[in-house]
Amino acid sequence: GDSVTQMEGPVTLSEEAFLTINCTYTATGYPSLFWYVQYPGEGLQLLLKATKADDKGSNKGFEATYRKETTSFHLEKGSVQVSDSAVYFCALSDPYGANSKLTFGKGITLSVRP
Amino acid sequence: KAGVTQTPRYLIKTRGQQVTLSCSPISGHRSVSWYQQTPGQGLQFLFEYFSETQRNKGNFPGRFSGRQFSNSRSEMNVSTLELGDSALYLCASSLGQGWPDTQYFGPGTRLTVL
């Protein structure tokens, strides 16, 4: 079945450091890919998405490119802020059957220190 | 536009009891999906409702059930609660049609089973 693998965490960075969070997937067909972020005590917020190969999703300085050849969707940000501290989830949507089912990775906790 | 709302935000129940959680989707959204989030299993898909019909179902026992009303609001019920049902229950809404069908999450209901 479909699966998403995220790099092991947690990750601790200093403010203004470069961020990369790795995500790879296994799926039949061509799923859409998403990054969601969860701040303490809150639900998930959609950060960015990409729907086909070579698409780049971007939002709030974060970027991720849909790489079909490596089945990857790595999240990057050039300069992190303390306010970026949160849990980040990579997810894919089932390309067959119900559109609305999301398969998530385990999530990774990012802590940014001043 | 108002976001997805979930009530109550926190619940404490004892083993053997049953519980009902409520979710109001974004206006115009006809699909509501439910997810369980635990530290051990991460985010797992429970089920999805679209136009008052269950359209997709995850791998959970029959104690977990749901329904959707004509105004797209949804409820989730868990009967005969077990300690392992303690989790954050997240509801997500989407249009339910088209591709991709992006999901927007509510803040969640934190259920504690004692």
Q: Which secondary-structure class do the elements of chain B indicate? A: mainly beta
What class, by secondary structure content of chain A?
A: mainly beta
Q: Strand count, sense and closure of the main sheet of chain A?
A: 6 strands, mixed
Low-pLDDT stretches of chain A are none
Radius of gyration based on Cα positions of chain A: 14 Å
Largest interface: A-B, 23 and 29 residues
User: What is the succession of H and E elements of chain B?
Assistant: EEEEEEEEEEE
Instruction: Determine the N-to-C terminus distance of chain A.
Output: 41 Å
Helix tally of chain B equals 0
Low-confidence stretches of chain B: none
Outline the structure in words:
The complex is a heterodimer of chains A (114) and B (114). Chain A has no helices and twelve strands. Chain A has strands at residues 3-6, 11-14, 19-21, 23-26, 32-38, 44-50, 56-59, 62-65, 75-77, 86-93, 102-104, 108-113. In chain A, strand 5 and strand 6 form a beta hairpin. The radius of gyration of chain A is 14 Å and the shape is globular. With 114 residues, chain B is an all-beta fold. Chain B has no helices and eleven strands. In chain B, strands 2, 4, 5, 6, 9, 10 and 11 form a seven-stranded mixed beta sheet that branches. In chain B, strands 1-3-8-7 form a four-stranded antiparallel beta sheet, with no helix packed on it. Chain A binds chain B through residues 32, 34, 36, 42-46, 49, 51, 89, 93, 97-107, and chain B through 4, 6, 31, 33, 35, 42-43, 45, 48, 50, 55-56, 58, 90, 92, 94, 96-108.
